[in-house]
Design a protein that fits this description.
Layout: E1 4-5, H1 15-21, H2 31-48, E2 54-57, H3 61-70, E3 78-83, H4 86-97, E4 101-106, H5 115-124, E5 128-134, E6 136-137, E7 142-143, H6 146-153, E8 160-164, H7 176-179, E9 183-187, E10 199-203, H8 205-213, H9 223-230, H10 241-257, H11 259-279, E11 293-297, H12 304-313, E12 316-317, E13 319-320, E14 329-333, H13 340-357, H14 364-378
Parallel strand pairs: 1-12, 3-4, 3-5, 5-8, 8-9
Antiparallel strand pairs: 2-10, 6-7, 9-10, 11-14, 13-14
Helix pairs in contact: 1-10, 2-10, 11-13, 11-14, 12-13, 13-14
């Protein structure tokens, strides 16, 4: 039995992507790849909603996060880190690695940042050069209010808004040019439904000005060098030919389908998860839920790690909790090539996993009721 992959990333691949990944190899300087790179620019500009250039890097999303800092900032620059989960912490770790000076606003895990706190911090520390935030904090399934945060930095000529949208692109309204997002970051293994290993980012005009004075060390992720190569239809270093072909196919597929349909499917899956949880008297962990992923809080006497292990034994792969949430939540991803019938199966196995630990609470009758209600949503 093929595994049903419902983690928030990596995600299940479509047949079109799998076909492209299995094709014969070609040279990364070939005409075919130059044409694909040109199409990708056009496709990405529609997704990022920007007129600016999109950089395609051979790295996981963290590489693009690093490139965002190293191409625009200088040692000891002050940055504001929005920390509300595992990936917010990563911004701080990156800032410290490059000898930046991080200020931090912490939101409780499961909650979005308070915009007024950010406003006050920027007011009291006008020397802050960048605000670093996730659009979707995948570890907690929380969406941060990006449009509202962008309104705080849009007219501050000396402060950038850098947004990790690795798990949010196509699942959230992130109009880069209109909102005033200065650097927007994506990753291949989320909504773009490729394997991990490719990341994307775009710089606003303001960020491009910062780029001119940046003095942090950079070599492989030097976007100035990358742009010169891109303008000739090439990449600065050897490109991942298979990924470029697959990404081209994936984006053409998505643009033809339309963002509204992609989000509609994710919303249906999120609603089914919420309904199933409600009938089992389980609570969602996030107070600002995302379409990308739903996090379900585990009751006090249920071990989320054992739930996840039981599901894996049944060939269902979901996300667990990270760091302080280890064993305390289970996360269901809603992106990638997911079939509704597979999702219904996964929820049913989730119920069985709970039943194994507490059969007196999660009875057959209760599971059947929850199953019926969720299948009504998935079969609409």
């Amino acid at each position: 039995m093929e595994k049903i992959l419902l983690s928030p990333g990596p995600v299940a691949l479509s047949p079109a992507v799998r076909e492209q990944l299995g094709r014969h190899m070609t040279h990364h300087r070939s005409k075919e790849i130059k044409q694909a790179l040109s199409r990708l620019q056009s496709s990405f500009q529609k997704i990022f909603k920007t007129k600016e250039h999109i950089y395609i890097l051979n790295s996981s999303g963290t590489g693009a996060m690093e490139a965002a800092l190293t191409n625009t900032l200088s040692p000891k620059d002050e940055v504001l880190v929005i920390s509300a989960g595992k990936f917010g912490q990563r911004w701080k770790e990156l800032a410290l690695a490059y000898k930046l000076t991080p200020h931090e606003i912490k939101a409780p895990w499961g909650e979005a940042v308070n915009v007024s706190e950010v406003k006050e911090k920027l007011k009291s520390h006008p020397q802050i050069k960048a605000v670093l935030v996730q659009a979707c904090e995948t570890s907690t399934a929380v969406n941060h209010p990006i449009k509202e945060l962008a309104s705080l930095t849009k007219n501050l000529s000396q402060t950038l808004l850098i947004v990790d949208a690795i798990s949010a692109l196509m699942m959230m309204d992130l109009d880069m040019d209109d909102y005033g997002i200065d650097i927007l970051i994506g990753g291949s293994q989320k909504s773009f439904a490729l394997p991990t290993g490719m990341s994307f980012l775009s710089l606003s005009k303001k960020a491009q000005e910062f780029q001119k004075t940046s003095s942090l060390p950079v070599y492989y992720f030097d976007l100035t060098k990358e742009l010169k190569s891109n303008q000739k239809g090439e990449t600065a270093f050897s490109a991942n030919v298979s990924f470029i072909r697959a990404l081209d196919a994936s984006l053409q597929e998505y643009l033809k389908q339309g963002f509204s349909e992609i989000r509609k499917k994710a919303k249906t899956l999120a609603q089914a998860t919420e309904e199933f949880s409600k009938h089992l008297n389980l609570k969602l962990f996030s107070s600002a839920p995302s379409l990308t992923v739903t996090a379900i809080s585990m009751p006090e006497n249920i071990d989320g790690n054992q739930v996840k292990k039981f599901m894996e034994e049944q060939n269902i792969i979901v996300g667990g909790g990270q760091d302080i949430l280890r064993g305390k939540i289970v996360r269901f991803g809603h992106i990638g090539h997911i079939q509704f019938k597979d999702y219904a199966t996964a929820l049913n196995v989730f119920g069985k996993a709970l039943q194994k630990q507490q059969p007196e609470i999660y009875t057959e009758e209760l599971l059947k009721t929850a199953q019926k209600k969720t299948e009504e949503i998935l079969n609409k």
